[in-house]
Amino acid sequence: MTTTIFGKIIRREIPADIIYEDEMCLAFRDVNPQAPTHVLIIPKREIPRLCDAADADQALLGHLLLAAGKVARQLGVADAFRLVVNNGADAGQSVFHLHLHILAGRPLRWPPG
Ligand code: AMP
To answer: What distance in angstroms lies between residue 30's CA and the mean position of ligand 1's atoms?
Structure first.
């Protein structure tokens, strides 16, 4: 599997504003924020897209959601945030290493664009 820019962040080969880390995942601020709070949560295991996750990743996927809640509490946005996973280029995915976007700090419309 080819690594991505997020793999380089995990290995500390390029800098990032890392705000949370545990044995399975890392959270850092998005370099091009779409909201006052915009954080990415990534698994350390390099899964390209959500649809590439396997049954064996069940605990990891649950862990990412729990980490999102933890990071939202840490950032003081737990009462109003949105989680986004873009799966595939046509859905807006540009980095092919699974990631959850945490967006908060402004009104979030529905339906999303
Ligand atoms: P997506 O379009 O869902 O694949 O999201 C990829 C996100 O990664 C975008 O919001 C980018 O702004 C963000 N991004 C790309 N490179 C970096 C980087 N080096 N550090 C932080 N965020 C990045």
So the answer is: 6
Examine the residue annotation and report whether 97 is marked as an active-site residue of this protein.
no
| Residue pLDDT, tens place only, 62-87 | 999 999 999 999 999 999 999 999 99
Q: Is the pTM of this model over 0.90?
A: yes
In short, whether 30's Cβ falls inside 6 Å of ligand 1 is: yes
pLDDT at 92 over 90: yes
Domains of the chain: 5-104 (3.30.428.10)
- The string of DSSP codes covering the chain is ----HHHHHHTTSS---EEEE-SSEEEEE-SS-SSSEEEEEEESS--SSGGG--GGGHHHHHHHHHHHHHHHHHHT-TTSEEEE---SGGGT--SSS--EEEEESS---SS--
Give the mean model confidence (pLDDT) for residues 38-44.
98
Q: CB of 31 closer than 6 A to ligand 1? A: yes
Q: Which of 38, 97, 99, 101 is catalytic?
A: 99
